Amino acid sequence: MNFELKKYLKDKKAKIEEFIKSYFQTFPTPPILHDSVLYSLTAGGKRLRPILCIASYEACDGMENIVPYATAIEFIHTYSLIHDDLPAMDNDDLRRGKPTNHKVFGEGIAILAGDGLLTEAFTILSNKDYANISSNTLLKVISEISKAAGLRGMVAGQAYDLISEGKEPDERVVEFIHLYKTAAMIKASVKVGAILAEASEEKIKNLEIYGQSIGLAFQIVDDILDIEGTTEAMGKPKGSDIEKGKMTYPRVFGIEKSKQKAKELIDKALESLTMFNHKAEPLREIAHYIIKRTS
Amino acid sequence: MNFELKKYLKDKKAKIEEFIKSYFQTFPTPPILHDSVLYSLTAGGKRLRPILCIASYEACDGMENIVPYATAIEFIHTYSLIHDDLPAMDNDDLRRGKPTNHKVFGEGIAILAGDGLLTEAFTILSNKDYANISSNTLLKVISEISKAAGLRGMVAGQAYDLISEGKEPDERVVEFIHLYKTAAMIKASVKVGAILAEASEEKIKNLEIYGQSIGLAFQIVDDILDIEGTTEAMGKPKGSDIEKGKMTYPRVFGIEKSKQKAKELIDKALESLTMFNHKAEPLREIAHYIIKRTS
């Protein structure tokens, strides 16, 4: 096996960031919104969701350049972080080692920047000029992403996350939060890659299992890092979940059982890739990386 | 001419509200989000934007039932009101005579309800099952609406509205705010009706002029009502624009010139409908109604 994940992630990240830069070069919006949106879009994210989308597309033999569509998912992820950090939500001052959007631009502009990024994602997804993808397929992608991001997906998870602060540990609640707040969009990122490649139903189904499993594992690892990670590596204060009384996996199941669960999920994700050939190697390596990450 | 606007508006409003009710009957979202979203969606709006969309579609000889797609525009309008009322934005306690969303459900849930409504609009617009409309046409509709609602449309207008509070009167700024904050989505509502009907380029162009003109007139009348209207009819405190130092049309041009401008815009809107037959009668009557309204 000669696949090097580090180089793969770096290459894809560069393409995504190049698209973001060119997209906003001559973009007709007020300067303050332009600055606010770009501030958060270029704050040094891992670009995990769009990379997963591209990796899944390539695993399904897709041959077009789908970077713009994948980057639309990063727009949605970034909007969710901006709104999540607001005083009325998690009230965080730091994100990836930098002041959060509302700390720099004020709450009103931060709300609007989030709204604008979410909306702009659909402008990108409805643009046929980026690649040779059928209108029907793009509609399916929009449906998938909007469901995963909205009232029956990420937004539902955020609502439960918010109203569960300080409540007694509850297995069903923490599982609901993880499934919707985090796993829904990670699963959709992977699935959308397969939809764009017009993959078979069977492949799509297996990639859904992969996406949901690594998505859940990702959030469990996040919860564990809040306890065992370093503030330096994470770019935000350690222990902030505990301070806010967040309903986390370690709080409900304990840290050892949480680690065990994350490992089981990664095994399940890898198993779901059995029917795929060497083109799914990035997806396999990303699954390993998710459990080993420190930030 | 036997066309009765009152009955027309009532009939269309009933269809839109029926769709809203059925849509959320068995909708999989947390109860608090469900309640928050429905609270604002059923707070007694005029449904002007979806009605304009349907009226435009019918003026262009459309024969399908496009109520679901038109209602998606109302979802976006409602999200914009929820976010606009937030303390970090206009900080309003009343809307249509009822406490604003965040006053009832809290700021966090209000932000999420707005996010969810915006996202759900695209779930509806990407659903092919509602009518016999081609995928390509639906993609065009999504592109049009997302541009009008986002960073180069309504969100841009909101940002300027926000940062212009308390500033010196400025003709260019107030025109920018009106054009983007209000007219962009009204114009898009009308244009989308024509796109759904696959109307000719010429018809679409004329309907764009109509939509932009009535959209600007609508906001000018809104500004005038803040001074001359009654708190009772409007369901919100009179004079609140002045109190907040908002950049309004009367503040920049004076009240008489504002009324004159609104009248000119309505004349322009009516003129743009010359090429349309009796099927455009609702659009003509709505133009007259916009300048005569008291709430």
Automatic annotation (TrEMBL), chains A, B:
Catalytic activity, EC: 2.5.1.1, 2.5.1.10, 2.5.1.29
GO MF annotations, alphabetized: (2E,6E)-farnesyl diphosphate synthase activity; dimethylallyltranstransferase activity; geranylgeranyl diphosphate synthase activity; metal ion binding; prenyltransferase activity
EC main group: transferase
Keyword Metal-binding attributed: yes
Superkingdom per UniProt: Bacteria
UniProt key word Magnesium: yes
Record key words, sorted: Isoprene biosynthesis, Magnesium, Metal-binding, Transferase
InterPro entries in the cross-refs: Isoprenoid_synthase_dom_sf (IPR008949), Polyprenyl_synt (IPR000092), Polyprenyl_synt_CS (IPR033749), Prenyl_diphosphate_synthase (IPR053378)
Cofactor: Mg(2+)
GO biological process: terpenoid biosynthetic process
Gene Ontology terms: cellular component: cytoplasm
PANTHER family on file: FARNESYL DIPHOSPHATE SYNTHASE
Annotated NCBIfam families: FPPsyn
Record family assignment: Belongs to the FPP/GGPP synthase family.
The protein's name: Geranylgeranyl pyrophosphate synthetase, (Ggppsynthetase) (Ggps)
Organism in which the protein naturally occurs: Thermodesulfovibrio yellowstonii (strain ATCC 51303 / DSM 11347 / YP87)
Organismal lineage: Bacteria, Pseudomonadati, Nitrospirota, Thermodesulfovibrionia, Thermodesulfovibrionales
